[in-house]
Design brief:
Blueprint (H helix, E strand, L loop, with lengths): L2 H16 L49 E5 H7 L14 E3 L10 E3 L2 E2 L4 E3 L2 E3 L12 E8 L3 H4 L6 E7 L7 E9 L4 E10 L4 E11 L10 E14 L2 E14 L29 E15 L4 E24 L5 E10 L2 E16 L2 E22 L9 E2 L14 E22 L4 E20 L2 E23 L2 E12 L14 E15 L5 E21 L2 E23 L4 E16 L16 E12 L5 E11 L2 E2 L7 E2 L2 E11 L4 E8 L7 E5 L3 E4 L4 E9 L1
Parallel strand pairs: 5-8
Antiparallel strand pairs: 1-7, 2-3, 3-4, 5-6, 7-8, 9-10, 9-36, 10-11, 11-12, 12-13, 13-14, 14-15, 15-16, 15-17, 16-18, 16-19, 17-18, 18-20, 20-21, 21-22, 22-23, 23-24, 24-25, 25-26, 26-27, 27-28, 28-29, 29-32, 30-31, 32-33, 33-36, 34-35
């Protein structure tokens, strides 16, 4: 069946379901039963186990043939996390990459970059030049391992993550917080929610921060305004609007170079930019509007619209190369403007039906999206104006060289139309089957100028991304699963003949086991999983053997490994999260001989995270908690040709709180207790991104 015919059939199905009406005699659901945002398991590290982005239905995660790790707000708070990056080390198979001078998030899942194409409340967020995600607006993070293209389209085969934001509540709450730490950290937060009326609720999150930095020569600042409204005009209908307006000022800090193969040649607080250069302006605006309506006891519909706009503008210094004297680093003055926008619309129907002895949970829908990205980067000439600096004895304040021309000018426009369908079958009480398919029409237009080279591409194609899996329920608390899925992601640019590259295509297999330990109320108190996976990605760009100035889509990489996670309340007083992963990546086909067989950069072969917290009540009724943990990141390849390695490290963390009264809470957190020097990521040999070092933070929160 060709793609156009499949699109038509799925469209007829979606239209029929969306047009369906409530069944005769269906009883309305009481408004008090409508849950908005917060999980019933808000105090457990296990997190929400239903209504997740893994299936987009209320199917329990134990029945979904996929490894999914939920990071709830309770864990985020106990860790004292202020950024999404602070929790990555506690998810198996998830690692940090180079954050491009501290300007955006860069995370990998199972060896493949997951940040571009990540999700916000189930909407694909293509913009990759936006601000790093703050933890102040996060309700939970849903990490979906393996391909999710059957539901969400363009993405990497290693997986993606979904940010679920805090929603308005019909119960009044107001909380103000203040955190103060060394290395310049100052952070104020405000979170308030409550009802305007019996059907309309509001929420407002505010963040103002002066961030911690690795050197006193630079500083960062951040401001966030996140208002939201929830309207429930009937017991069956919920309309939600939310926004996130983020403004960040930060230097373009490319970190440190590798010197003679050594990553430890320079102290981590050595700054090789120019402190007098104004900080970059990083902007991120997100607006979402969703409608959820329950038609009857079996069927519901959902529609939504998201618009996200980001920008990264300003001056900075780009490192060039280390000279033969081993101490002079050439630099380029650069100016960049990188605006992007992503608009998408979704509509879908979910329902339950029965055919013979088979029970179905059906999801079908469509999505339309438009993504634009513009990059204009101009700089000075490294040959005529090297703008050098002594890496061992830097002197700042040199006359800045003039910009001589454009380094990169590019315009990208991606338009997508997609239909998707998914069926979850209860074959028996023990056997569950899931199958899904997304059909996507993709139009990609890209123009790029790099120096004297101009490339243009205009490409239309259709992609089918299926997934299938089977789950065997040994009991309601334990299950094994086997899954298979495909993914795709567009390549940009064109080959020597001016033809657009075929998209990246991935195929993944996964075999796993899940277990849940139940609390007295029947909710999961502890969740655990272990899985093994094998992923192959084709059409990776590699150098054209007949013309070194061009690439061709002919490379292949693979990733395989084992992951394990455990999280929850293991006793009435102990909360724990633990994870471990073994990820083996390898370039299996490439036209460049010195890349063949190499591991993928910035991906640790071994990684692990552990955090445990003891909590109890004092005789006066106040509550306290004290905990600690560690994150271990194994040795990583520093660049594509594996000429040096980023050393392994283990970072130790302490955290505690005292809930003095129902209103007052005091917190203490120590990150990198032993003040280890380590690097979170790298680009080539010119950019090692060091951690800030030991960070001690004290905080106070007052609820009123």
């Amino acid at each position: 069946m060709n793609a156009h015919r499949t699109l038509s059939l799925l469209g007829i199905t979606a239209g029929s379901l969306l047009a369906a009406g409530p069944a005769q005699g269906a009883e309305p659901t009481p408004l008090s039963e409508i849950r908005v945002g917060a999980s019933r398991d808000a105090r457990s590290y296990a997190g929400e186990q239903r209504n997740t982005a893994a299936s987009r239905t209320d199917t329990p995660l134990i029945e979904v043939p996929q490894n999914v790790r939920i990071v709830p707000q309770k864990l985020v708070g106990d860790l004292g996390a202020t950024r999404l990056a602070d929790v990555v080390g506690f998810v198996s198979g998830m690692s940090q990459g180079n954050d491009y001078g501290g300007t955006w998030d860069s995370f990998a899942l199972r060896g493949f970059e997951a940040s571009p194409g990540s999700l916000i409340n189930g909407f694909s967020s293509t913009c990759q030049c936006g601000p790093r995600r703050d933890a102040g607006t996060i309700e939970r993070v849903e990490v979906l391992k393996g391909p999710s293209a059957a539901l969400y389209g363009s993405s990497e085969p290693g997986g993606t993550y979904n940010i679920v934001t805090k929603k308005p509540q019909f119960r009044p709450m107001r909380e103000a917080g203040l955190k103060v730490g060394n290395r310049g950290l100052r952070r104020a937060t405000f979170d308030a929610t409550g009802p305007f009326s019996s059907t309309l609720a509001w929420r407002l999150n505010l963040v103002a921060e002066k961030g911690a930095t690795r050197t006193s020569l630079i500083e960062t600042s951040k401001y966030i305004v996140a208002p939201s409204l929830t309207w429930a005009p009937t017991a069956r209908t919920i309309v939600n609007y939310e926004a996130d307006i983020t403004r960040i000022r930060t230097p373009y800090d490319r970190g440190l170079p590798v010197i003679n193969g050594r990553t430890d040649a320079l102290p981590r607080d050595r700054y090789l930019g120019e402190p007098s250069i104004p900080n970059l302006h990083i902007r991120g605006d997100v607006h979402q509007l969703t409608l959820n309506h329950t038609l009857n006891d079996q069927w519901s519909v959902r529609a939504g619209l998201m618009h996200r706009k980001t920008d990264n503008t300003g001056h900075g210094t780009e490192p060039g190369a280390l000279q033969r004297d081993g101490r002079t680093l050439t630099r380029r003055m650069a100016w960049r403007s990188m605006p992007s926008s992503n608009t998408s619309m979704q509509a879908e129907a979910t329902g339950r039906l029965q055919t013979g002895t088979l029970r179905h949970t059906v999801l079908t829908g469509f999505e339309v999206s438009r993504y634009t990205h513009h990059a204009d980067i101009r700089g000075s000439d490294l040959r005529t104006a090297p703008f050098g600096i002594d890496v061992y004895a830097p002197v700042y304040g040199q006359a800045q060289p003039p910009y001589t021309g454009a380094l990169v000018v590019s315009n990208n426009h991606d338009n997508t139309r997609a239909l998707y369908a998914q069926d979850q079958l209860d074959v028996t009480e023990q056997l569950k089957v899931m199958a899904g398919l997304r059909v996507e029409r993709f139009h990609q237009r890209a123009d790029s100028v790099r120096g004297n080279r101009t490339t243009r591409s205009n490409h239309h194609y259709s992609e089918l991304t299926p997934r299938a899996g089977v789950t065997w329920m040994f009991s309601p608390e334990s299950a094994a699963f086997l899954s298979w899925g495909r993914s795709f992601k567009p390549n940009t640019g064109s080959d020597v003949n001016g033809n657009a590259f075929e998209p990246l295509k991935g195929t993944a297999w996964e075999l796993g086991y899940k277990w849940e330990g139940r609390q007295d109320a029947g909710q999961p108190g502890v969740v655990a999983s272990i899985s093994a996976f094998h992923i192959t990605k084709n059409n990776v760009l590699t150098q054209d053997p007949n013309n070194a100035d061009f690439n061709m889509a002919a490379g292949q990489v693979r990733s395989c490994g084992v992951e394990a996670d455990l999280a929850g309340d293991i006793t009435p007083h102990w909360r724990l999260t633990a994870s471990a992963g073994l990820t083996d990546t390898k370039v299996t086909r490439d036209n460049t001989a010195n890349l063949l067989g190499k591991r993928l950069p910035n991906v640790p072969r071994v990684s692990a995270g552990l955090f445990a917290l003891w909590h109890d009540r004092l005789d006066n009724g106040s509550e306290y908690g004290a905990g600690g943990g560690l994150v271990h990141v194994g040795e990583r390849t520093g660049n594509a040709t594996d000429t040096y390695r980023l050393p392994a490290y283990t970072s130790v963390k302490l955290s505690g709180y005292w809930q003095a009264t129902s209103q007052l809470r005091l917190t203490l957190a120590v990150d990198n207790l032993f003040d280890r020097t380590f690097y979170t990521g790298s680009i080539g040999t010119i950019s090692l991104q060091p951690d800030v070092g030991r960070l001690v933070t004290v905080g106070v929160q007052y609820r009123f």
